[in-house]
Design a protein that fits this description.
The chain has 93 residues and is of the alpha+beta class. It is built from three helices and five strands, in the order ββαβββαα.
Length: 93
C-alpha cells in the first residue's frame, strides 16, 4: 500500500475511501494539495499515510495511527465477512 518515503493522500468519510488525492514527497506538500481542494472534502477526513504512520489533517497533521489501525479488521475478520464471495467450491453450477 505505502510507497517508501512518499505520502499517500486520500479523502474518507466514516472510514470509507471517497477519493485518492495522490502521492507527495512530504506531509507539507500533501497539506498544500489538500488545502487547495478544501471545498471538495467538507464533512470528510483527509488522511495521509507515510511509512507505517497514519495522519489526519486538522489544523495540522495529527498522528492517528493507533486509532486508525484499531478500526481496521484483521484478515481473519475480512475472510469471515467476505470469504464466501470468493468460494472456490460453490455448491451450484
Amino acid at each position: 500500500m505505502n510507497q517508501p518515503n512518499k505520502v499517500m493522500l486520500h479523502i474518507e468519510r466514516e472510514g470509507q475511501l471517497l477519493a485518492y488525492l495522490g502521492v507527495y514527497e512530504t506531509l507539507e506538500d500533501a497539506k498544500k494539495a489538500a488545502l487547495s481542494v478544501e471545498m471538495l472534502y467538507e464533512g470528510c477526513e483527509v488522511v495521509a499515510f507515510l511509512h507505517d504512520r497514519t495522519y489526519m489533517l486538522t489544523d495540522d497533521w495529527e498522528d492517528i495511527t493507533e486509532d486508525y489501525n484499531a478500526e481496521q479488521p484483521d484478515w481473519q475478520q475480512e475472510w469471515e465477512d467476505f470469504g464466501e464471495v470468493y468460494d472456490d467450491e460453490p455448491n451450484y453450477i
